[in-house]
Design brief:
This protein is of the alpha+beta class. It has seven helices and eight strands. A five-stranded mixed sheet has the order 5-4-8-6-7, with no helix packed on it. A three-stranded antiparallel sheet has the order 2-1-3. Helix 1 runs antiparallel to helix 2 (about 15-25). About 15% of the residues are buried.
Length: about 300
């Protein structure tokens, strides 16, 4: 015959908990109720908070509950809720769980659970345990989803912050370039005005002296001289020779493409995450701060050779 302990072990309960439940309650029905009530507590907490049942035989000062004349006690009755218990251990467990303290002996016998009732009780407890495990898994899944969502949000924020920094760096470089070009225009205007004043002074001096003034001419290249090269601003594309750890790449990009887009193209072709570009002549390193600038702004037109790192 299968014992109550074996039945609890077959249901998946830990042996120490099952033994303690039977010891505290005295039977399968009470053990199931005890296990259900304490399923959220650790074994250590149960041991620390459980008071060992005190039997009348162990306490010499304990007084038996009164009986009616000629009657024999068959069970214990909780006057607070009306429940009946077959043993004092079950009554003490009920008192520890409900804080009920008013008990009396009863002549009514508590019938043991039938096999059908035991099966129904076990099935109900199995269902509750399965529901609790499902709830735990659902909670874990939600926590994992929240963790992934938080990480994705942080990654998106970091990417947006990086792009914003690149845009700010590009804007600063453009402002600086515009400032340099404005200064160059001012210097050229000053030089032109100075030359105009010099020519007028020379003309006035020649007129006073009665001689012809020298003509103001601008130097122009002769046919036999070197042919002027095409300015970088006239190119619409740039040819790049890219030296990577996976080999050399030859690519042509529009001059308006940024280094960030070039790095993205390299990563797509080779899987290499670009940290910087190095130009040997003239020696220069383009890092993440320069990634927002175009090839034209960085002087990488009409062609350039870059080492990818």
């Amino acid at each position: 015959m299968v014992s109550d302990l074996d039945t609890l072990l077959d249901m998946g309960f830990e042996k120490v908990r099952a033994e303690l439940a039977i010891k505290k309650t005295g039977g399968l029905q009470g053990a199931l109720e005890w296990l259900e009530a304490n399923q959220d507590k650790s074994y250590e907490d149960i041991i620390a908070t459980t008071v060992t049942p005190t039997h009348a035989d162990d306490d010499p000062d304990a007084e038996p509950l009164p009986l009616q004349p000629g009657e024999i006690a068959q069970s214990l009755l909780c006057n607070d809720c009306g429940k009946k218990f077959r043993s004092q251990a079950q009554a003490e467990f009920h008192a520890s769980k409900t804080q009920h303290v008013d008990f009396a002996e009863s002549t009514e016998e508590v019938a043991p659970l039938t096999e059908e009732e035991k099966k129904a009780k076990l099935e109900d407890l199995r269902r509750k345990l399965a529901e609790k495990r499902t709830a735990w898994k659902t909670t874990d899944s939600r926590q994992e989803i929240r963790r992934k969502s938080t990480k994705q949000s942080q990654d998106i924020k970091e990417e947006l912050k990086k792009k914003e920094q690149l845009k700010e760096a590009a804007a600063k470089r453009k402002d600086k370039q515009d400032e340099l070009e404005a200064k160059a225009r001012i210097k050229a205007k000053i030089a032109a005005d100075k030359e105009e004043r010099r020519f007028r002074a020379e003309k006035d001096r020649a007129e006073r002296e009665g001689r012809a003034a020298a003509l103001q001419v601008s130097a122009a290249p002769t046919k036999s001289g070197p042919v002027e090269s095409k300015p970088a601003s006239a190119y619409s594309d740039s040819r790049l020779r890219l030296q990577t750890s996976a080999g050399n790449l030859q690519k042509t990009f529009p001059v308006t493409v940024t280094l960030f887009e070039v790095a993205a193209a390299i990563m797509q072709d080779t899987g290499i995450e670009v940290q910087s570009f190095t130009q040997n002549f003239p020696k220069k390193v383009f890092d993440a701060v320069d990634f927002g600038a175009s090839l034209k702004e960085l002087g990488l037109v009409p062609s350039a050779s870059l080492i990818v790192k």
